[in-house]
Automatic annotation (TrEMBL):
The keyword Translocase does not apply. One of its GO terms (molecular function) is hydrolase activity. This is Peptidyl-tRNA hydrolase. Monomer. The keyword RNA-binding applies. The active site is at H23 (proton acceptor).
Protein backbone atom coordinates (compact mmCIF):
# COMPACT_ATOMS: atom_id res chain seq x y z
CA UNK A 1 0.00 0.00 0.00
CA UNK A 2 1.46 3.33 -1.04
CA UNK A 3 1.23 6.42 1.08
CA UNK A 4 0.32 8.67 -1.83
CA UNK A 5 -1.72 11.55 -0.43
CA UNK A 6 -5.04 12.75 -1.77
CA UNK A 7 -5.29 16.42 -2.66
CA UNK A 8 -8.69 17.85 -1.75
CA UNK A 9 -9.30 21.19 -3.45
CA UNK A 10 -12.12 23.21 -1.94
CA UNK A 11 -13.09 25.73 -4.61
CA UNK A 12 -14.09 29.26 -3.71
CA UNK A 13 -13.04 32.89 -3.56
CA UNK A 14 -10.74 34.24 -0.83
CA UNK A 15 -11.72 37.03 1.56
CA UNK A 16 -14.53 37.78 3.99
CA UNK A 17 -16.63 39.37 1.24
CA UNK A 18 -17.18 35.95 -0.34
CA UNK A 19 -16.95 33.67 2.69
CA UNK A 20 -20.67 32.87 3.00
CA UNK A 21 -21.46 32.83 -0.75
CA UNK A 22 -23.02 29.81 -2.42
CA UNK A 23 -19.92 29.71 -4.62
CA UNK A 24 -17.77 29.10 -1.53
CA UNK A 25 -19.14 25.77 -0.33
CA UNK A 26 -15.85 24.19 -1.36
CA UNK A 27 -13.99 26.36 1.16
CA UNK A 28 -16.62 25.54 3.80
CA UNK A 29 -16.17 21.80 3.30
CA UNK A 30 -12.38 22.14 3.41
CA UNK A 31 -12.70 23.98 6.73
CA UNK A 32 -14.86 21.17 8.15
CA UNK A 33 -12.33 18.56 7.03
CA UNK A 34 -9.48 20.51 8.62
CA UNK A 35 -11.45 20.72 11.85
CA UNK A 36 -12.11 16.99 11.84
CA UNK A 37 -8.45 16.11 11.49
CA UNK A 38 -7.34 18.73 13.99
CA UNK A 39 -5.34 20.60 11.36
CA UNK A 40 -4.95 24.26 10.52
CA UNK A 41 -4.57 26.03 7.21
CA UNK A 42 -1.39 27.97 6.57
CA UNK A 43 -0.90 30.42 3.73
CA UNK A 44 1.72 29.19 1.26
CA UNK A 45 2.36 32.36 -0.71
CA UNK A 46 4.49 30.72 -3.37
CA UNK A 47 1.64 28.30 -4.08
CA UNK A 48 -1.02 31.03 -3.84
CA UNK A 49 -3.10 28.84 -1.57
CA UNK A 50 -3.94 27.94 1.99
CA UNK A 51 -2.75 24.41 2.71
CA UNK A 52 -3.38 21.93 5.50
CA UNK A 53 -1.47 18.61 5.61
CA UNK A 54 -2.94 15.88 7.79
CA UNK A 55 -4.08 12.28 8.10
CA UNK A 56 -7.61 10.93 8.37
CA UNK A 57 -7.39 9.35 11.79
CA UNK A 58 -4.32 7.98 13.55
CA UNK A 59 -2.12 6.37 10.92
CA UNK A 60 -4.84 6.95 8.31
CA UNK A 61 -4.47 8.10 4.71
CA UNK A 62 -2.63 11.36 4.05
CA UNK A 63 -4.61 14.33 2.80
CA UNK A 64 -3.55 17.71 1.47
CA UNK A 65 -6.39 20.19 1.91
CA UNK A 66 -6.16 23.19 -0.38
CA UNK A 67 -8.06 26.47 -0.60
CA UNK A 68 -6.78 28.42 -3.64
CA UNK A 69 -6.18 32.14 -3.12
CA UNK A 70 -6.21 32.80 -6.87
CA UNK A 71 -9.98 33.43 -7.04
CA UNK A 72 -12.30 30.88 -8.59
CA UNK A 73 -11.51 31.45 -12.27
CA UNK A 74 -7.82 30.61 -11.72
CA UNK A 75 -8.21 27.74 -9.23
CA UNK A 76 -6.07 25.44 -11.32
CA UNK A 77 -3.11 27.82 -11.13
CA UNK A 78 -2.82 26.96 -7.43
CA UNK A 79 -3.99 23.33 -7.42
CA UNK A 80 -1.94 21.90 -10.31
CA UNK A 81 1.50 23.08 -9.05
CA UNK A 82 0.68 21.75 -5.56
CA UNK A 83 -0.34 18.39 -7.02
CA UNK A 84 2.96 18.29 -8.90
CA UNK A 85 4.93 19.30 -5.79
CA UNK A 86 3.41 16.47 -3.72
CA UNK A 87 3.63 13.95 -6.57
CA UNK A 88 -0.15 13.57 -6.79
CA UNK A 89 -1.70 12.56 -10.10
CA UNK A 90 -5.23 13.67 -11.08
CA UNK A 91 -6.61 10.27 -10.01
CA UNK A 92 -5.94 11.35 -6.43
CA UNK A 93 -7.39 14.86 -6.72
CA UNK A 94 -10.86 15.65 -5.38
CA UNK A 95 -12.52 18.97 -6.21
CA UNK A 96 -15.32 20.16 -3.92
CA UNK A 97 -17.64 22.73 -5.45
CA UNK A 98 -21.11 24.22 -5.76
CA UNK A 99 -23.41 22.83 -8.45
CA UNK A 100 -26.37 24.67 -10.00
CA UNK A 101 -27.79 21.55 -11.67
CA UNK A 102 -28.34 19.67 -8.40
CA UNK A 103 -31.23 20.50 -6.02
CA UNK A 104 -30.35 22.60 -3.00
CA UNK A 105 -28.64 20.67 -0.23
CA UNK A 106 -28.10 17.42 -2.15
CA UNK A 107 -24.63 15.89 -2.52
CA UNK A 108 -23.43 13.99 -5.59
CA UNK A 109 -20.04 12.68 -6.58
CA UNK A 110 -18.65 11.88 -10.00
CA UNK A 111 -15.37 11.49 -11.83
CA UNK A 112 -14.64 13.29 -15.08
CA UNK A 113 -17.24 14.71 -17.43
CA UNK A 114 -17.99 18.30 -18.28
CA UNK A 115 -17.64 21.35 -16.08
CA UNK A 116 -21.23 22.58 -16.48
CA UNK A 117 -20.08 26.16 -16.97
CA UNK A 118 -18.24 26.16 -13.62
CA UNK A 119 -15.17 28.36 -14.08
CA UNK A 120 -13.29 26.80 -11.18
CA UNK A 121 -13.61 23.33 -12.71
CA UNK A 122 -12.72 24.67 -16.14
CA UNK A 123 -9.51 26.15 -14.75
CA UNK A 124 -8.73 22.95 -12.86
CA UNK A 125 -9.22 20.75 -15.93
CA UNK A 126 -7.03 23.01 -18.03
CA UNK A 127 -4.21 23.15 -15.48
CA UNK A 128 -4.29 19.43 -14.66
CA UNK A 129 -4.46 18.57 -18.36
CA UNK A 130 -7.44 16.27 -17.81
CA UNK A 131 -11.04 16.20 -16.61
CA UNK A 132 -10.53 12.80 -15.01
CA UNK A 133 -10.53 13.78 -11.34
CA UNK A 134 -13.18 13.25 -8.67
CA UNK A 135 -15.75 15.91 -7.84
CA UNK A 136 -17.88 16.25 -4.72
CA UNK A 137 -20.77 18.44 -5.83
CA UNK A 138 -22.91 20.42 -3.41
CA UNK A 139 -26.26 21.33 -4.93
CA UNK A 140 -27.24 24.99 -4.67
CA UNK A 141 -30.15 24.72 -7.11
CA UNK A 142 -31.11 27.12 -9.85
CA UNK A 143 -31.65 30.85 -9.23
CA UNK A 144 -35.24 31.98 -8.80
CA UNK A 145 -37.03 33.78 -11.61
CA UNK A 146 -34.72 35.44 -14.09
CA UNK A 147 -31.84 36.06 -11.71
CA UNK A 148 -28.48 35.60 -13.39
CA UNK A 149 -26.69 32.42 -12.32
CA UNK A 150 -23.38 34.24 -11.79
CA UNK A 151 -25.06 36.73 -9.46
CA UNK A 152 -26.91 33.94 -7.66
CA UNK A 153 -23.80 31.96 -6.70
CA UNK A 154 -22.06 35.13 -5.46
CA UNK A 155 -24.86 35.79 -2.98
CA UNK A 156 -24.88 34.46 0.58
CA UNK A 157 -27.17 31.61 1.50
CA UNK A 158 -30.45 32.85 2.94
CA UNK A 159 -30.72 32.79 6.72
CA UNK A 160 -33.50 30.20 6.51
CA UNK A 161 -31.21 27.94 4.48
CA UNK A 162 -28.32 27.93 6.97
CA UNK A 163 -29.37 24.88 9.05
CA UNK A 164 -29.64 22.76 5.91
CA UNK A 165 -26.40 24.24 4.56
CA UNK A 166 -24.55 23.31 7.75
CA UNK A 167 -25.83 19.73 7.47
CA UNK A 168 -24.98 19.57 3.76
CA UNK A 169 -21.42 20.75 4.39
CA UNK A 170 -20.93 17.93 6.89
CA UNK A 171 -22.37 15.41 4.40
CA UNK A 172 -20.07 16.69 1.67
CA UNK A 173 -17.12 16.25 4.03
CA UNK A 174 -18.37 12.69 4.71
CA UNK A 175 -18.38 12.10 0.93
CA UNK A 176 -14.76 13.25 0.61
CA UNK A 177 -13.69 10.95 3.44
CA UNK A 178 -15.61 8.05 1.89
CA UNK A 179 -13.80 8.46 -1.44
CA UNK A 180 -10.42 8.46 0.31
CA UNK A 181 -11.10 5.63 2.75
CA UNK A 182 -13.43 3.32 0.79
CA UNK A 183 -12.59 4.05 -2.83
CA UNK A 184 -14.43 6.05 -5.45
CA UNK A 185 -16.90 3.41 -6.67
CA UNK A 186 -18.04 2.40 -3.19
CA UNK A 187 -18.40 6.04 -2.17
CA UNK A 188 -20.29 6.93 -5.33
CA UNK A 189 -22.74 4.06 -4.88
CA UNK A 190 -23.45 5.12 -1.30
CA UNK A 191 -23.64 8.90 -1.82
CA UNK A 192 -25.57 8.90 -5.09
CA UNK A 193 -28.05 6.20 -4.08
CA UNK A 194 -31.68 7.40 -4.05
CA UNK A 195 -32.76 8.41 -0.57
CA UNK A 196 -35.83 6.66 0.85
CA UNK A 197 -38.93 8.80 0.69
CA UNK A 198 -41.04 9.59 3.72
CA UNK A 199 -44.23 7.51 3.87
CA UNK A 200 -47.33 9.48 3.10
CA UNK A 201 -50.25 9.59 5.51
CA UNK A 202 -53.20 7.49 4.42
Amino acid sequence: MTDTPTLVAGLGNPGSKYAANRHNVGFMVADVLARRVGGKFAVVRKARAEVCEARLGVGGPRVILVKPLTFMNLSGDAVAPLAQYYGIDPEHVIAVHDELDIPFGEIRIKRGGGEGGHNGLRSLSKSLGTKDYARVRYGVGRPPGRQDAADFVLKDFAKAERPEVDLGIELAADAVEAIIEKGFVTAQNAVNAPKPTEPTAQ
